[in-house]
């Protein structure tokens, strides 16, 4: 039997090619996605990566696969540099807010869950905290030591990259190129055999103020950042992974190190497809938590952008292209989203006509072809617009919108979404009317008021400004 999903084509960072996708176990995808470091709010760049991963999972499900997906929550071990240098991010967060690392982790994990819920991102079936799996990391590190892939130096345990010949395969770069990125390590940690060696376990010798610590055969300490994903993936998905994802910054060193330690530990190839989402940039360059205006989903909301406007903004471009955020661009998307919701709401409320099965099949096929083409979400949206423009009955259109929204997840048929959009629309019209009155353009002001009235929205000017009532 040929699964629909067998046509899926995905770009694989490992081979640098778009490849036909196939799974180890027929019809089942074992998928691992690196989760957030919970020392601060996620910025909308981070959230772009989670939207891409959500689309990947939902596309595979739409094509007939069952997806077993695991995500970690990084609450220990991630340094301010993605190598082993700098401060511990969690520790930094705790100092910033005068809280314990546990409180920080708890607070920002909840904030993350809240964000992804607002973006209609499906929470992976298994979400695990890094600090809950210390035993698994210790078991893996012990085996890596036994197999001579790891060594103890200066109180810490390091992975010896010279023992893993394919170390640079994923990044496609030479050791020389990448040394630039780890130069800090060279100066700081003279106990390493090779500058590119990375930490598997740190003892107190590294950071004396580290709060999260556990006993280990090598002294009290804590795990390196990379081992957590190898450990959690091994524990919940076993020895073979189909897909591993993250943002492009994860390629080196994080995913490179994950491959080295997992394959050395397991003794065979670990993951077949490595999929990476490109970054969201602002006009000054890559968006990061430490730079400029901290662009969170809540900030966007406070400026009047509904979270799903941001989801649509991301879906309009391909996940492997850099995307530049600007308020002009998101304004255009906001407009487009309002129009889209207006059209889908009309169809929802006017479900007349036959259900035309041939047309449903045709458009669903087009939609699938777009997804199978390395997740071409822009083309998938074009198919949606084609349906709205088509001569299909509203019943057919309704069925197709419902079907596509299983992947797009734009809340296209939900009543309350329309209400939110309606509120935004009325507020904008009120502002326009106020502006017109200020400029003494009374005709325009009256026109706005009567247009709203025609739609059943009555404005009242009072001491609190302009309020409105909606006649049902
Ligand atoms: P972190 O919370 O720092 O561990 O990052 C969470 C996820 O966001 C990782 O998969 C990163 O690769 C990704 N990421 C970081 N910066 C950006 C960005 N500017 N645009 C898109 N994804 C990003
Ligand atoms: Zn990871």
Structure description:
By secondary structure, this protein is α/β, with parallel strands linked by helices. 47% of the residues lie in helices and 16% in strands. It has 15 helices and 16 strands. The chain has helices at 44-62, 89-97, 101-118, 134-146, 175-188, 225-237, 251-266, 297-302, 307-315, 327-349, 357-372, 377-389, 394-408, 415-438, 442-454, and strands spanning 9-12, 17-20, 28-33, 66-73, 126-129, 150-153, 156-159, 198-203, 221-223, 241-247, 271-277, 280-282, 285-286, 323-324, 457-462, 465-470. The strands form five sheets. Strands 5-4-3-10-11 form a five-stranded parallel β-sheet, with helices on both faces. A four-stranded antiparallel β-sheet has the order 6-7-8-9. The chain has a three-stranded mixed β-sheet with strand order 13-12-14, covered by helices on one side. Strand 15 and strand 16 (465-470) form a beta hairpin. Helix 1 (44-62) crosses helix 9 (307-315), helix 2 (89-97) crosses helix 3 and helix 14 runs antiparallel to helix 15. The longest helix has 24 residues, at 415-438. The chain is globular, with a radius of gyration of 26 Å. The N and C termini lie far apart (53 Å). Mean pLDDT is 90; it is low at 183-187.
């Amino acid at each position: 039997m040929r699964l629909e999903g067998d046509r899926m084509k995905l770009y694989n960072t490992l081979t640098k090619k778009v490849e036909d996708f196939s799974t180890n176990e027929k019809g089942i995808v074992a998928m691992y996605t690196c989760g957030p470091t919970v020392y601060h709010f996620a910025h909308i760049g981070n959230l772009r990566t989670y939207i891409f991963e959500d689309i990947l999972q939902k596309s595979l499900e739409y094509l007939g696969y069952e997806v077993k997906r695991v995500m970690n929550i990084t609450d220990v071990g991630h340094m301010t540099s993605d190598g082993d240098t700098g401060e511990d991010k969690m520790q930094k967060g705790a100092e910033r807010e005068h809280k314990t690392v546990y409180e920080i982790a708890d607070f920002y994990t909840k904030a993350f869950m809240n964000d992804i819920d607002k973006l209609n991102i499906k929470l992976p079936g298994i979400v695990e905290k890094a600090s809950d799996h210390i035993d698994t990391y210790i078991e893996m590190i012990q085996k890596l030591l036994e197999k001579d892939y790891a060594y103890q130096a200066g109180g810490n345990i390091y992975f010896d990259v010279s023992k893993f010949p394919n170390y640079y395969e994923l990044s496609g770069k030479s050791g020389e190129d990448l040394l630039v990125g780890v130069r800090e390590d060279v100066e700081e940690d003279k106990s390493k055999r090779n500058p590119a060696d990375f930490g598997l376990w740190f003892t107190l010798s590294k950071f004396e103020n580290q709060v999260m610590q556990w006993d280990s055969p090598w002294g009290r300490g804590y795990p390196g950042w990379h081992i957590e994903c190898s450990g959690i993936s091994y524990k919940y998905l076993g020895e073979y992974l189909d897909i591993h994802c993250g943002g492009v910054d994860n390629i080196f060193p994080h995913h490179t190190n994950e491959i080295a330690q997992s394959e050395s530990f397991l003794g065979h190839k670990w993951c077949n497809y490595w999929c990476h989402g490109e970054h969201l940039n602002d006009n000054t360059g890559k968006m990061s938590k430490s730079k400029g205006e901290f662009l969170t989903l809540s900030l966007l909301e406070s400026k009047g952008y509904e979270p799903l406007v941001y989801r649509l903004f991301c879906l309009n471009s391909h996940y492997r292209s850099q995307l530049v955020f600007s308020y002009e661009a998101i304004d255009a998307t906001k407009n487009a989203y309002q129009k889209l919701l207006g059209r889908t709401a009309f169809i929802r409320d006017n479900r007349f006509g036959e259900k035309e099965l041939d047309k449903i099949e045709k458009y669903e096929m087009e939609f699938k072809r777009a997804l199978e083409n390395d997740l071409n979400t822009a083309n998938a949206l074009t198919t949606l617009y084609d349906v709205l423009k088509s001569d299909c009955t509203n019943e057919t259109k309704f069925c197709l919108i419902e079907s596509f929204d299983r992947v797009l997840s734009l809340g296209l048929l939900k009543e309350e979404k329309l209400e939110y959009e309606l509120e935004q629309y009325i507020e904008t019209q009120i502002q326009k009317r106020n502006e017109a009155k200020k400029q003494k353009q009374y005709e325009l002001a009256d026109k706005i008021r009567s247009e709203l009235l025609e739609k059943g929205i009555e404005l009242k000017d009072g001491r609190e400004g302009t309020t409105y009532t909606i006649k049902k």
